[in-house]
Amino acid sequence: MRVTDSLMSKNFLRNLSANTENVMKYQNQLSTLKEVSKPSDDPLKVSKILDLNNSIIQNDQYKATINDAIQWTNVQDSALSSVTESMQRIKTLIQSSANDTLSHTDRQANKVEIESEIRGTVDALNTNFGGRYVFAGMNTTEKPFKVDENDNGEITGITYNGTDEGKGNLSREIAPGVLVELNTDGRKFMNAQNADGSDDLGTFFSEVLTALDSDDTEKLSSLLDRADQEIENVVSNRAKTGSIYNRLNATLERNDSEKLNLKTMLSENQDIDLAEKYMEYTMESTAYQAALSMGTKILQTSILDYL
User: Quick one: which of 85, 185, 186, 304 has the fewest CB in 10 Å?
Assistant: First the structure.
């Protein structure tokens, strides 16, 4: 009889301990609103939650990179818009100056305005974003374009001091294993007409200014086609920047969608259903109280058997 009572007491204490642990588990879940709070609660689930949290952190890092690249391309587009306007104005002034009836004084006035537009073009191509020059190739800390002047301060052309061609575009990783190449190689705006680069945008500007000084209307007329080429080059590169911008925005949308999916999966593994969990807690508490009441009677009987 005493052996049976002893076993009953041990079973009661073991079951009561399990009931107590369950009640405490539900209390903790209700207070934290989380399914697990330490690895021992559910090692597999905790491991999955950690993986999901790491994926969300990585997703946020990619989003920051994408947003930075989007802002970069926006700045580039604004700069190229200014360059296009300046180049179109230069063409208009060349066309005006090619008129034989225009006086030398009027051509010199046009020259002054063209020089101003050239400086504006160089300023736009030297645009920086967050201290980084957006058309400097890989060397983003140094101003890439420079106005060349003679001893009298007159413009003789422009030069590019950025990264060599073929090494000038920055790349950004916008998703795991996915790289986007930003249109940062400023050398392409020099639009070299020959292999050694001796005839480029700087040469074009120089020829225009020289023709204005000498009232060479025939030369000015011949430079109109070249002006169209230079404008088309800028427009073409602006379109390329626009396509990069569109790709980045599409990637940003996928990034946001992926984050939503990750957070949904995290919630499914980590967050509790409050109503369901409270019902489970109530049932476990009721079972705990019933076991405690029953156990009290068992223990009292066992003690009396020894008296």
Answer: 304
- What average pLDDT does the segment 218-242 reach? 96
pLDDT at 169: 82
Please answer whether residues 182 and 72 qualify as being in contact, where contact means their C-beta atoms are separated by less than 8 angstroms: yes
206/126 same-domain check: yes
Residue 246 lies in a domain: yes
Q: How far apart are the first and last CA of the chain?
A: 14
Determine the structural domain holding residue 58 and report its residue range.
54-263
Q: What was the pLDDT predicted at 131?
A: 92
Contact assessment for residue 66 and residue 203, using Cβ atoms and an 8 Å cutoff: no
What's the residue count for the chain? 307
In tens, the pLDDT along 49-61 reads 899 999 999 999 9
Q: Are residues 224 and 77 in the same domain?
A: yes
d(CA 263, CA 71): 26
163 with 189, same domain: the answer is yes
Report the SS3 class of residue 86.
Answer: helix
120 φ, ψ to 5°? -65, -40
pLDDT digits (tens, 9 = 90+) for 10-31: 666 676 666 667 666 766 766 6
Q: What is the sign, positive or negative, of the torsion defined by CA atoms of 41, 44, 47, 49?
A: negative
One-letter identity of residue 158:
I
Number of domains in the chain: 2
CB within 8 A of 27, min separation 6: which ones? 281
Same domain, 184 and 255: yes
Which tokens belong to 141?
Answer: 């800390």
pLDDT at 7: 66
Structure-block tokens of residue 3: 């052996």
CA distance 39 to 241: 48
Please tell me the pTM assigned to this model: 0.78
Do 193 and 71 fall within a single domain? yes
Q: Kindly report the average pLDDT of the chain as a whole number.
A: 86
H or E element, residue 59:
helix 43-97
